[in-house]
Design a protein that fits this description.
By secondary structure, the protein is α+β, with helices and mostly antiparallel strands. Helix content is 41%, strand content 12%. Helix 1 runs parallel beside helix 3.
């Protein structure tokens, strides 16, 4: 089954788009915009957004990104990247439990220590 990524570049989906491209994984990209960026996300002509009923079937938490791989749906960008690295990673995948622990450690470090500063 093909990978489908829901989100837009100007969101945390950029992490997943970057990794999927880095891994050479073909994927379907479905642009889903954050509802708070729209004047009226419920308007008939509103683009697919995080409060659209179609998207809420993918992620009832109303957040992007979301990744679908067959019947599996993941909704946190860094968890999605850990999954993708382990599934398709080749040289980017952990080869041992130790490497997996280090990959997880640095991922958690990035979200807790780096991201708050990058958002300022």
């Amino acid at each position: 089954m093909a990978i489908t990524l829901y989100g837009v570049y100007r969101s945390r989906a950029s992490r997943n788009i970057w990794l999927l491209n880095e891994l050479g994984v073909k994927f379907k990209h479905v642009p889903v915009i954050q509802a708070n960026r729209l004047a009226n996300p419920a308007a008939k002509d509103a683009p697919l957004n995080t409060t659209s009923p179609a998207f809420r079937k993918i992620n009832p938490n109303d957040r992007i990104p979301a990744l679908q791989d067959g019947k599996l749906i993941l909704n946190e960008s860094l968890a999605m990247n850990l999954y993708l690295a382990k599934k398709f990673g080749g040289k980017l995948a952990p080869r041992t439990v130790k490497e997996d622990g280090l990959m997880t450690m640095w991922t958690v470090w990035a979200v807790t220590e780096v991201e708050p500063h990058s958002r300022r």
